[in-house]
Amino acid sequence: MSTTQRFNFLLLALILCGQAHSRIIIRQSPSSDLVSDGVHRLPEPTYLSLNPFSSGSESTCEQTYGFLPCTTTILGNLFLIIVYGYLMYLAATYLSGGSELLLEILGPGIVGGLFLPALGALPDAMLILVSGLSGSKETAQSQVAVGMGLLAGSTVMLLTVIWGTCVLVGKCDLEGSIAKDSQDTKGFSLTGSGVSTDIWTSYAARIMAVSVFPFLIVQLPQLLNSTSGRHLAVLIGLIVSFSLFVSYCLYQVFQPWIQKRRLDYVKHKHVISGILKHANALERLLDEEGEPNREVIKKLFRIIDENDNGFLSTQELRAWIIGIRFGEIDFDKNDAVEKLMKDFDTISNDLQLDQDEFIAGISRWLNEAKRSGDISADPGHKKMDFLNNFHERTKQEHDLLGMGNQSDEVVEGAAEAKWTTIKAVLMLMLGTAIAAVFADPLVDVVDNFSDATSIPTFFISFIALPVATNSSEAVSAIIFASRKKRRTASLTYSEIYGAVTMNNVLCLSVFLALVYVRGLTWDFSAEVLVILIVCIVMGLLGSFRTTFPLWTSFVAFLLYPFSILLVYVLDYFFGWS
């Protein structure tokens, strides 16, 4: 059965169930029995029977929109949670699929930086929004715990269960603190296997750690035992969180441009290191004092100057660069020549190099390489190795940028671009519609299930709802991680950190707006503490490491039950909330 057929079936079942009414089971009372044969004293029956004429019970429920089904029983509410949760999962799937299709056609920039992060957080934002809009202020205060449970649960699940699972399924052999792509021979070695990411993933983790700042602002009055400043703190936290959301979107918009500039710079450094290494192999470029050897550089100039006219032209420089082996890093030779000419042609600016300009340029490059190679530590030894060190560090910088191997995905042709765009828009519209329609019923059902089981709504929404709203992200992340490549691992963890960042800025903005506009009480100290602990621990782990051995996955896994236990202890033993 296809996804569309399953959706239609569930929708039809919900509509039909909306016309059904339950009947209570009662014991017949002898005093109220009406019989036709004149017998007035009947023994009390030992069996239960249905009263078909009863239309009510002690506890009642209200149908959402006036027709969607509701129930007061535990199993009935559990069934509805599963159904509505699946519908929210479909909404998240459609939004994710449509976003990816749109990204393929329109590329990053505004689409990838502005729309995709917001659309990814839309199901969570919808649930948070409706949790505080419906009913009276008292009802909203009760149901808003569903929104906070979802917010905390999504963040914790992404950074613990999903994060750790991606390490397990994406692990490769670690050699020299770097994971080798598609090589997994060490089994479940805690230190010998793991995953590696690029430097941009570390930046995403740092941004995620910074995004918890609004939580601290809102929590500040409670830390100071102040009641008068809570409403103001909510407003300030709202402004700060929304500002961080806008800033994060702008960063995402300009990130491709930043990455390109960074990559171009690293490739240029690789050209420099390759040229110096090649020239030094012919004759050592440094004299005994560790300074650039002018005579050797002059000899190199004469070798490149094929027509012996005392100047190096663009063609001569290109011929020289083509003859140098630069290793596995690919780059545009013409662009490299243009940058070399721009670096060296600083005196005459006539697009050709004389001997003085060439000597000055090579000397400047050598000094830069010496600083990077740390020649001062042991001058007598480093003179032989600093160029190799500089070359290796340049290669490592290139690898950390994650630009070594481009995606193997097939880019669709222009002929299918129009249909793909239409399909993407339809998927986005359908996902948005499903999330908007079924968010409110799901919140109501969670509240009813809480009443029926006496389980706090926070724990239901903390555990159950994130499974529905983040399932598509979880499946996508695990599939990418299972490819066992550094590039896909980087993409996986960047998406996880990005999703948590959107929870901390966009979803929190929606939540704080509800609290401020409706005048609700901010009383979520335990939940905020859990978010802070998980985000800061995993943020620091991701900020200062690009390689994650297998043991880090167990750290992540243990944080999940720790979070649930911490909230329970703080709320029910210390009375924090």
Report the major sheet.
4 strands, antiparallel
Gap between N and C termini? 45 Å
Number of strand elements:
6
Which sequence of strands runs across the widest sheet?
4-3-5-6
- In terms of DSSP E residues, the strand content is under 5%
Round the Cα radius of gyration to an integer and report it. 32 Å
Which structural class is indicated by helix and strand composition? mainly alpha
**Helix and strand element order:** HEEHHHHEEEHHHHHHHHHHHHHHEH
Average of per-residue pLDDT values: 77
Percentage of residues assigned to helices: 55-70%
Envelope shape:
elongated
* Count of alpha and pi helical runs: 20
Quick structural overview:
The chain is mainly alpha-helical and 577 residues long. It is built from 20 helices and six strands.
Observed structural traits:
577 residues; mainly alpha; 6 strands; four-stranded antiparallel β-sheet
